[in-house]
Amino acid sequence: MQGKIALKGLMFHSFHGVHSFERERGNDFRIDLVFQTDISKAALSDKLADTLDYEEVYQIVAEIMEVPVNLLEHLAYKISEKLFAEYTEVKILDITVAKILPPLEGRCEESSVSLVRHR
């Protein structure tokens, strides 16, 4: 039985960006993840060991968010690589990385990059 498991609105204060002031002051980021995977085992067993552990996923993303990079594209790729390596049962991963109130001349609520990875 195929299903989707979503973690939306993972929030971090990190130091990603191409400008020196972004590396000094940081910015707020939001990560949204949607995993497409077989949920049969967990649906039948009702055991955490048979599904994605949200806390583990959060910790993996948090670890990656601690290492500054220049681009949201690279950040999304790094997160997807690690999650695909850790969770081989995931068939499709949809990830969005958003920088809240990016440093632009005008007003912008967020800039974001989304990618979809298929196994």
TrEMBL record:
What does the record give as its pathway? Cofactor biosynthesis; tetrahydrofolate biosynthesis; 2-amino-4-hydroxy-6-hydroxymethyl-7,8-dihydropteridine diphosphate from 7,8-dihydroneopterin triphosphate: step 3/4
Reactions catalysed, as given in the entry: 7,8-dihydroneopterin = 6-hydroxymethyl-7,8-dihydropterin + glycolaldehyde
Ranges for the Dihydroneopterin aldolase/epimerase domain?
5-117
InterPro entries named among the record's database cross-references: Dihydroneopterin_aldolase (IPR006156), FolB_dom (IPR006157), GTP-CH-I_C/QueF (IPR043133)
- Report the superkingdom from the record: Bacteria
Molecular functions (GO terms): dihydroneopterin aldolase activity
Q: What is this protein called?
A: 7,8-dihydroneopterin aldolase
Keyword annotations for this protein, in alphabetical order, are: Folate biosynthesis, Lyase
Give the originating organism: Imperialibacter roseus
Q: Which PANTHER family match?
A: DIHYDRONEOPTERIN ALDOLASE 1-RELATED
Gene giving rise to this polypeptide: folB
State if Methyltransferase is listed as a keyword. no
Q: Pfam families, from UniProt?
A: FolB
Q: What does this protein do?
A: Catalyzes the conversion of 7,8-dihydroneopterin to 6-hydroxymethyl-7,8-dihydropterin.
